[in-house]
Amino acid sequence: MGGIGKTTLSKKIYHLFHEQYDQSSFLEDVKSKNIEDLKKQLLQDLCDQKKDSAEVVNGDDLKRIEETMISKKILVVIDDVNEKLIHDLSKVLAFQGKNRKSNVIMSCRTWGILEDHLDPNGKFEMPYLNKKQATELFLSHAFQNTKQVEKGFENIVKEIVEACAGLPLSLE
Q1: Element containing residue 38 per DSSP (H, E)
Q2: CB contact at 8 A, 78 and 108
Q3: Cβ contacts of 22 within 8 Å, gap of 6 or more
Q4: Which of 5, 25, 63, 167 is deepest in the core (most CB within 10 A)?
Q5: What is the pLDDT of residue 85?
Q6: Count of alpha carbons within 13 Å of 44, Cβ hemisphere only?
């Protein structure tokens, strides 16, 4: 579901671990981008090769990406994949399994989009926040980082937290 924290978690994972890899790439909100721009970003991030906007990523470029991913320890995080791009992205990242040191992490709204392209053992489903977590998150935004409900607002806070049903973006 949108707003549950997939992008936030993807960014956090990337920032925590990217320095442990030889090269890394974070492809954010891929559903709103075209495959050519994503290929160019991968080429730049992983192979230190920049293409201008008029140039097209060719077969040699894709081979360079694949060789880099096989020969180096690579992290690629792909955020918010949709059905339109998963097929093209899976072609670009066909190296999967050829280098056990490299990792690809993808996020999407529906597992069905990824199930033919990724190992289900690596699947993580984002949980909703429980009532305590939801209240803490709401309070941190509504009352300048306090963990206590200001007097007179107890019922309003409870109603808002219940209405948001554990969805972080709504609580923020």
Answers
A1: helix 35-47
A2: no
A3: 72, 73, 74
A4: 25
A5: 78
A6: 12
- The mean pLDDT of 130-146, rounded to a whole number, is 83
Output the six-digit token pair for 74: 């690579």
Whether the model pTM is above 0.85: no
> Which helix (H) or strand (E) covers residue 111, if one does?
helix 111-114
d(CA 146, CA 35): 44
Q: Which two tokens stand for residue 73?
A: 């320890």
Three-state secondary-structure class, residue 109:
coil
Lowest mean pLDDT among 22-31, 43-52, 105-114, 132-141: 105-114
| Amino acid identity for residue 153 in this structure | F
* Inter-CA distances, 111 with 5, 27, 64, 102, Å: 15, 18, 30, 22
Distance CA 70, CA 138 (A): 44
Tokens read off for 49 = 């090769």
Distance CA 94, CA 88 (A): 10
48: number of Cβ within 10 Å: 9
- Residues contacting 149, CB < 8 A, separation 6+: 135, 139, 143, 157
CA dist list (Å): 22 to 68, 81, 105, 120: 10, 24, 16, 26
